[in-house]
Structure formats: structure tokens, C-alpha cells
Specification:
It is a single chain. By secondary structure, the protein is an alpha+beta fold. It is 12% helix and 27% strand. It is built from 4 helices and 10 strands, in the order αααββββββββαββ.
């Protein structure tokens, strides 16, 4: 292995691209163009705590979310767990990913959402300079979507490393099963990345332990991968309370073709 911590090789988007995603602001136009009644999209969003904005976002996901590169730090662990922190320090992040079938605009239940990210200092588990250390698994995990298409994780706000904006990697898997706490079989139906609003990135960077990260932070606008479809997976962030250090909630909607094998 030639990877070094805090630096990901050039992840330029030679990965397969899907059709352009209508932004959340263009949701109504996207639904109209597809001939999908607004009531159908709203029904797909039904559930506790839903808002008109959530329903609009679900409607926007009726077209495919763009693919983004997997990157060099994926480990095929497939461990099913909600809390992936393993004691890592950082601002608590409740991550809620809603997966929608672009053919029907309805939520996709029993879809495996597989995420991996770096810690506050920009380090991924399983990798160190000069090779792999598979004995570490922090900030990696899989959750299956519920009947509303939602997978939820308890994690921490990611840090950063040279050349990349703050992000979380993600895959969705379809058609597999869970046994002994591990997801098996099926196929990958989407590979992408999630991003964070710069207003929150700046505030988080000033907090402990992030302020101990000496790597130069790359803004979203300067990240070549973000510029190729990243705005469609920009998380909507809300604070859990008045103290940012106490935690945030991040939500996103993915439009996926469950039969695809990108």
C-alpha cells in the first residue's frame, strides 16, 4: 500500500457518472418534467417530523444522484452498526440518509447504506503510512434503510486532510442479507460522497479537537470532486442545541436505481 495519512490520491471523476441531479431548489420543475404528481412525492416523504421542505427534497430525488469516486480508503467490512464512533473525539453528528427509487419516487427500504470517513485529524481507520492496519475500524459502518427509506448513523463531524473538502464516503447496496452482524451479497447500486456547508465547516474547525488539525483545509468550491456534482449531496445541517459542540443533525436524500451496478 502506498497511501499516506491525511492525503487522498487524486480522486478525479473518471468514475461512471449518472445523469445530472435536479437541485433541491428545482424540485418542482424536476417532478413536472418527469410527470410525477406532487402528491406522490409528498406521500413518499410521510413520516414523523416531516416538513414541506423534506417532501420537496424527496421529489427532487426522482432523478439519479451523480456518482462520485470511491477513493482509496474503502474497506469491505460491511459491519452493521448504528454507532460508528468507537470513542473518537469530535462534534457528535447524527447522519440521516434517505434513499429513494428514482423510477417510482418512493423510499427504498432494506437498502444497505455503507459509510466511511476520516476522524477530526484527517485519519482513516485501517490505513497508516506504508500499509494497511486492519485492526482499526472506527468511523465505518452499514445501516439498512427502514420502511421510510431512512438509514441513521451516530458518528462525528469529519475532519479534513490535504486536497479534499470535508466529506463522508458512501455506497448503497441492494439485494443482500444480514447475518452475524455483517451485510453479505447483493450489489453496489450507488457510490458517492456527502459534503457539509462551509458555514458549519468554519465553525467546527475552531473547536477542539479540530483546531489541532494542521492540514490546510480545502473549501468545497476548490475541491474538484465536489465541483462535479457535490452540491447535490450537500447535507442539510441543524444544531441539536445552542451549543454547536453538543452536536448536529445532517440529512440528505439520494436518488438511486436499485438495479444499477455502477
Amino acid at each position: 500500500m502506498t497511501e499516506t495519512p491525511h492525503h487522498e490520491p487524486a480522486e478525479q471523476t473518471d468514475a461512471t457518472r449518472r445523469s445530472l441531479l435536479a437541485t433541491l431548489g428545482g424540485a418542482a420543475l424536476g417532478v413536472a418534467a418527469l410527470g410525477i404528481p406532487a402528491s406522490r412525492a409528498t406521500a413518499a416523504a410521510a413520516g414523523p417530523g416531516d416538513t414541506p421542505q423534506a417532501a420537496t427534497g424527496l421529489a427532487a430525488a426522482c432523478v439519479l444522484t451523480p456518482e462520485q469516486t470511491e477513493g482509496p480508503y474503502y474497506l469491505d467490512l460491511e459491519t452493521v452498526r448504528k454507532n460508528i464512533t468507537e470513542g473518537k473525539a469530535g462534534v457528535p453528528l447524527t447522519l440521516r440518509v434517505t434513499v429513494v427509487d428514482t423510477a417510482t419516487c418512493f423510499p427504498l427500504p432494506n437498502t444497505a447504506v455503507d459509510i466511511w470517513q476520516c476522524d477530526a485529524l484527517g485519519v482513516y481507520s485501517g490505513y497508516v503510512a506504508g500499509g494497511s492496519t486492519p485492526d482499526t475500524t472506527f468511523l465505518r459502518g452499514v445501516q439498512l434503510t427502514d420502511s421510510a427509506g431512512v438509514a441513521e448513523f451516530t458518528t462525528v463531524y469529519p475532519g479534513w486532510y490535504v486536497g479534499r473538502a470535508i466529506h463522508i464516503h458512501l455506497k448503497t447496496h441492494a439485494g443482500g442479507t444480514v447475518s452475524n452482524g455483517t451485510y453479505h451479497g447483493g450489489h453496489v447500486s450507488h457510490t458517492g460522497q456527502l459534503y457539509f456547508p462551509e458555514t458549519y465547516n468554519t465553525k467546527i474547525a475552531a473547536l477542539t479537537p479540530y483546531r489541532n488539525n494542521t492540514a490546510t483545509r480545502t473549501l468545497n468550491a476548490r475541491d474538484g470532486i465536489y465541483r462535479n456534482g457535490g452540491s447535490s449531496t450537500l447535507l442539510s445541517i441543524t444544531q441539536a442545541g445552542s451549543d454547536l459542540g453538543k452536536g448536529v443533525v445532517g440529512t440528505v436524500i439520494l436518488g438511486v436505481n436499485p438495479a444499477a451496478t455502477p
